[in-house]
Amino acid sequence: MARLTAGVGSSHVPLLGVAVDQGKTGDDYFGPIFAGYEWTREWEKAEKPDVIVLVYNDHASAFDMKIVPTFAIGCGERYKPADEGWGPRKVPDVEGHADLAWHIAQSLILDDFDMTIINEMDVDHGLTVPLSMMFGSPDKWPVKVVPLAVNVVTYPVPSGNRCWALGEAIARAVASFPEDLNVQIWGTGGMSHQLQGPRAGLLNREWDNKFLDMLESDDDAARWIPHIEYLRETGSEGIEMVMWLIMRGALGKKVKTLHRHYHIPCSNTAIGHIVLEPAD
Ligand SMILES: [Fe+2]
């Protein structure tokens, strides 16, 4: 059977993709950011996951105000990097795992989660930057990916509780897939940042680290953080952190922390990264 072996949380800042693509990951500015991912790059080489369920949000690349799915799952065979205004990133196409994705879609929908099924879409920095952070610049990504897109761009966005419960349902779906696969779930986005308005540039080291502490804990208090707290404490774009709760909800009650990293600033955001293993 398929096994959900680990969860990874990571920011997906577009500037980090630029740093990888332009070979600047070791310079004075980016060096300390990428140093915090070195442990994970070595760990991933040893873990050799077959598939990542990659929770991310689309930034008006595949979706726009014409259609705003709350939760969408990619069931296609392949996804191309999106053109976000400067041409598509020169990274490999992302290979899907259609059989697992359709299985998860069926399991989730019969579990009362009304997923939008996407068979064709381009994927933007929300999905490709975390792949670059964890796997560098290979000719071909070493894993297949089931993209899981969440609306955190247009209110109403899903509650933390709903995201956590979706993670629990994804874990049930993966555990009932008959093929022997090593599956990880990644939650991406955040941490504190606000891109516009009078509070543009807001960062909150203390709150971000409290959130990481909550993810490491055995209780599920993080699922009850209201939207207004993300907005107030972490800026308008900090709401992306609800996507980390899908990852955390999938790992069960107890987790073991394998790695954790936090750095500010990166572009106009705070960088957070955590690697967790189910410990029930
Ligand atoms: Fe984002």
Automatic annotation (TrEMBL):
Transmembrane segments: none
Record carries keyword Lipid metabolism: no
Residue stretches making up the Extradiol ring-cleavage dioxygenase class III enzyme subunit B domain: 9-271
One Pfam family it belongs to: LigB
Alphabetical keyword list: Dioxygenase, Oxidoreductase
Gene Ontology molecular function: ferrous iron binding; oxidoreductase activity, acting on single donors with incorporation of molecular oxygen, incorporation of two atoms of oxygen
Entry protein name: Protocatechuate 4,5-dioxygenase subunit beta
